[in-house]
Amino acid sequence: MTGEFALIHRIARLAARAPSPDVVLGIGDDAAVLQLPRGSQLVAAVDTLVEGVHFPIGTAAADVGWKAVAVNVSDLAAMGARPRWALLSVTSPDPRAALALARGAMACARRYGATLVGGDTTRGPAGASVTLLGTVPRGRAVTRAGARAGDDIWIAGVLGDATAGLACAQRRLHPSARDRASFLRALDRPNPPLALGLALRAVASAMIDVSDGVLADLGHVLDASSLGATLGAGPLPASRALLRAVPDVGARFAMQCRGDDYTLLFTASPRYARRIETIAQRAGLPATRIGSTHALRGLWREGPGLRPTRLVAAGFDHFR
Questions:
Q1: Residues 254, 291, 284, CA angle at the centre, nearest 5°?
Q2: For residue 169, how far is the Cα from the chain centroid?
């Protein structure tokens, strides 16, 4: 392989192996031409991954490509939207690494039913930016602003494994080899629960993906909905691997609030509790009720006796 255009040609050939009828014109022109399904609205998300910020130095290029798409799938899942088309911008010092990154991105896009339709390639420090376009039935997008006082607050799946993976990569956590591999997979190859997000359109009043940390992201929902919330006194949902690796409840809670989980936090009326459990079971992912919303602003957690503890809805912030 020599040069940028040879790289683009290779990526275009790979993308052409999975044609989609809604792509009128894909890679190879100045822009893509796409056909929206009748009765749908367009949903767009973009995320940029930078080496040393979003992934450790030395992460495999294919894993970077996968994650660059997956974090956007997570955003669309939180809107109840179906991914359809991806635009990939690759920055790399090496065309072979750029091709590996593109392969990883296309593998994730195929996993979630999206087609790579264009992008850009640039020589420079390793990184990737993906714009993911999806569709949702007209008027059916789930936003952060729909929660109502008295709603239950739910978490899909578990929290903290990706943060444990980063701790392993930085040699701050030393679990068993099996648990280490599980944590690193959670960090490098997240699998957002898209099927669950689509199914929750029928019952969720508000939804957000957990990327900056569960407290911070819950805080975004509460701000958008002009509400407060109280979390239960019980532990947040955790994998068996995390329970083994971090047995201390306080340390585990702190780790679970760090973000990079790419799962869903959502609110719903208590009358939908059984239905949500059924939906989650069909999606193959547990859903855990962690608290409830109320009109009193602020974020609280049930404590000993009847005195709740006030929490700070803080999480990852690029500029803090």
A1: 85
A2: 20
